[in-house]
Amino acid sequence: MQRVSAALSRVCDGALYLAGIGLVAMTALVAYQVFSRFVLNASPSWTETSAIMVMSWFIFLGAAVGVRENFHMGFDVLLYVLPKGSKGALRTISDLVAFAFGIGMVWYGMKLVALTWHSTIPALGLPGGFDYLPLTVGGVLISLFSLERMLLRWAGVDVDKDINLEAVPEMPAVQEA
Amino acid sequence: ETVLRSADTHPDGYPTVEAVKYMGDLIKERTSGRYSVEVYHSAQLGEEKDTIEQTQTGVIDLNRVSMGPFNGIVPETQVPSLPYIFRSVEQMRHVMDGPIGDQILKAFEAHGLVGLAFYDSGARSFYNTKKDITSIADLKGMKFRVIQSDVFVDMVNALGANATPMAYGEVYSALETGVIDGAENNWPSFESAKHYEVAKHYTIDQHQIVPEVLVMSKASWDKLSPEDQTIVKQAAKDSVVKMRELWDAREKKSRDIVEKAGVKVSEIDKQPLIDAMKPVYDKYLSTPELKDLAARIQATE
Amino acid sequence: MEIWILFGVFTLLMFIGTPIAFCLGAASFATIVYLGLPPLVVFQRLNSGMSVFSLMAIPFFIYAGDLMVRGGIAQRIVAFAGSLVGHMRGGLGQVNIIAATMFGGISGSAVAEAAAVGGLMIPQMKERGYGADYAVNVTSMAALIALLLPPSQNMIIYSISGGGKISIADLFTAGILPGLLLAASLMVTAYVVARHRGYPTEPFPGFARAGRLFLISIPGLLLIGIIFGGVRSGVFTASESSCIAVIYALLVTVLGYRTMRWNDFVHATKGAVRTTAMVLLIIGMAASFSWLMAYLRVPAALIAGMNAISTDPLIVLLLLNVLMLLLGTFMDMGPMIIICTPIFLPLVTHYGVDPVHFGVITILNLGIGLNTPPVGTVQFVACAVGKITVWEAMRSIWPFYGAGIVVLGLVTYIPAISLWLPSVFK
Ligand code: NA
Ligand code: NA
């Protein structure tokens, strides 16, 4: 299990880096769109469509990372008032929901890819199925990561640390201006 | 009683929405209430690309869609979408009501859809915030918003103007602030999107007279008895007459509103614009079948 | 029955702590299965609901905010604000609000703002003897100013959800006075509470130093003009302006201040990816959820119900405000705008309310919801920075809620506060 977990940790890091590159790429695409319209006086028809596709990728990759790092926002007031034992059980239910939904993303994502594979995305000329690839890949990672959480919790590892502190960037010290 | 669910991106009261409701009334009457139609207007069920997929998989039964989103799915739909392919609205109606229209409707079947009928969407023309456009030379260098489609981009560029693909939702602001000089659409959309508040010059060049299409999910169609299939098909055909009546009235009403608001309407000699389309046709009529279809459309009176 | 499944599954899962995104997704899935429809549509809506160009404003503004914090733009603005109002009673509370107002003019996200200004101010305030609850509440409420002052990603989402016919430039302009009004009302409240609690003042640093701090913060503050001017004059669209904010933040911190190191850049990018993925996954799942609401005709039922109660626009606006405040306690702002606008906007325009005016009402109302548990993103962030629980913050937030509600009432019933400024630009 530990070795699997270490491997998944690398997958998670990789997904986060890819997603970060996606965000930078999307910035570049939209900046190029503004630049070419305003400076070159010609608007490429592919920038918007491809920027959206890149966004789709980094959201689903980032969302999967969120499952592993446990930063998805939830309402856990009830968990604080309930006795300790039930907390683990409820968390497991939540992970099961995410796991099942992830499987759904893979299964129906593939169906959507197949359904749209023979159509063409205007402006890019790619098969329409490309639109649904991020959904499918994100689903694979979400189900993997939520399964890992359930197994680790079952093995006694604390995977339910408080989530909201993680989302806040640590602040550099106040500089004397 | 079975409810057939129908999607439309247009708002309630729009001719296509009303025509499908009318069709529903006919179906209800002719099946003695066994079938009825409920229209989900205003894109409640998603944009056209999405509702097409929902229709293909049988999530919804009926769908009124523009031709554009089908261009990448059903190649035959590319031909009537070409700029300046129809000379007038009357000619378009004549073509789509005849054997050519039937041939295109049949082509949907290979994609999990049953083509029922063609509706009108009027004629799209250019409008802008800058000046009256009365000749092809006036178009030179102007920035026009187009939908994210290569045909539109190529058409506008072939006319000597600059195409700016942009989401529809950003057009009003973009016209107002001068990100673009103009856009293009039919009278009702020009009016209902309020673009006439900022763009005061409309040029009747009618570069696109594209019909819209009413399709049914193949899955839903197969559930109907042969008699009911005939009833649905006939009700769809009957709704076209109603649709055109409503459309013509709507177009006139919108044009009146717009002209009353001070929009200057100008005519333009279409022939030089049609001639400029040669490279566009060469690019998009990629197979002999499509070339033949285009030739037959142009040869129809 | 279907409606009960949809809302029942959602509520049940929410109370056992399932992330909101999956509550929405699972509830949609269960309902679709019950209806006997292909579940495929749930995933299609999820995918298309987030694949919208205008939604890009969210990642961009979050990213720009993270870069401005990492690269020291926010710190310089806070220092400048300190020199202006630090000498008032409870000075650091006032500094917090003024800094939030200035930063709000360049940031489009209240979360980024709470993290940025709160991260700098809350530790300082605690050190100088302010209660952590006071520091947190001032921060979280002042962060809402960013929603109203341009740029604002939520106004873009509102315009799109309203069918795209509402001018974003007008919405941006309309938010300015309400934003400043909120700032003023919070400053008064913070002053009264600070007096009551006996909080200290800071010495005035002198005009020379204040001037120097101003000069240093100019490159950051310049972004206010670039974004507002750029959108109004048509150099770029509102959605594109969010991307320009990222580019500009990079230019200032890398070339201007030379404070952005590679490591900071990587951190900011990763942080933005995390926040963005969290928010947009909820928006995608909400698209499935609202598809089902439309399919089940929930909006029509709501409008019918509203018509049965009253058709007086003043009452309708009051009812909608109460309804949105209630819904806003449970749901995040983005999904709420996406779900509510298509339902409420036709209703209010039917009664003659201007869509731009209603946009400002919606943003302010749902903004207050960002500071109400159980789902209060901004409050969570501020509490996390202040290291207190939401319940500790709740004990003393009431005067600040009061300030927000008063402004909401004024903005609702005096349309000119929103609509006068856009009319000047016409
Ligand atoms: Na702002
Ligand atoms: Na809330």
UniProtKB/TrEMBL annotation, chain A:
Name one cellular component (GO) term. Answer: plasma membrane
Q: Which GO terms describe its molecular function?
A: transmembrane transporter activity
Protein's GO biological process:
C4-dicarboxylate transport
Q: Does the keyword Transmembrane apply?
A: yes
Q: Where are the transmembrane segments?
A: 15-35, 50-67, 88-110, 130-147
Q: Where in the cell is it found?
A: Cell inner membrane
This protein's source sits in the domain of life called Bacteria
Q: Which Pfam families match?
A: DctQ
* Keyword terms, alphabetized: Cell inner membrane, Cell membrane, Membrane, Transmembrane, Transmembrane helix, Transport
Check the record and name the InterPro entries matching this protein: DctQ (IPR055348), TRAP_DctQ (IPR007387)
Q: How does it sit in the membrane?
A: Multi-pass membrane protein
Looking at the record, the residues that make up the Tripartite ATP-independent periplasmic transporters DctQ component domain are: 26-155
Q: Does the keyword Metal-binding apply?
A: no
Q: Quote the PANTHER family the UniProt record gives.
A: 2,3-DIKETO-L-GULONATE TRAP TRANSPORTER SMALL PERMEASE PROTEIN YIAM, TRAP TRANSPORTER SMALL PERMEASE PROTEIN
- Subunit structure comment from the entry: The complex comprises the extracytoplasmic solute receptor protein and the two transmembrane proteins.
Task of the protein: Part of the tripartite ATP-independent periplasmic (TRAP) transport system.
Q: Which family does it belong to?
A: Belongs to the TRAP transporter small permease family.
Q: What is this protein called?
A: TRAP transporter small permease protein
Automatic annotation (TrEMBL), chain C:
Record's keyword annotation contains Transport: yes
Write down what this protein is called: TRAP transporter large permease protein
Q: Where is each TRAP C4-dicarboxylate transport system permease DctM subunit domain found?
A: 7-417
Listed Pfam families: DctM
Membrane-crossing residue ranges in chain numbering: 6-34, 46-64, 97-122, 134-151, 171-193, 213-231, 237-257, 277-296, 302-327, 359-385, 397-421
Known function:
Part of the tripartite ATP-independent periplasmic (TRAP) transport system.
Q: Name one GO cellular component term.
A: plasma membrane
> Main localisation, per the record?
membrane
Topology in the lipid bilayer is annotated as:
Multi-pass membrane protein
Q: How does it assemble?
A: The complex comprises the extracytoplasmic solute receptor protein and the two transmembrane proteins.
Q: Where in the cell is it found?
A: Cell inner membrane
PANTHER family listed in its UniProt record: SIALIC ACID TRAP TRANSPORTER PERMEASE PROTEIN SIAT-RELATED (PTHR33362), TRAP TRANSPORTER LARGE PERMEASE PROTEIN (PTHR33362:SF2)
Keywords, A to Z, come to: Cell inner membrane, Cell membrane, Membrane, Transmembrane, Transmembrane helix, Transport
* InterPro entries per UniProt: DctM, TRAP_DctM
| Family membership noted in the UniProt record | Belongs to the TRAP transporter large permease family.
One example GO MF annotation:
transmembrane transporter activity
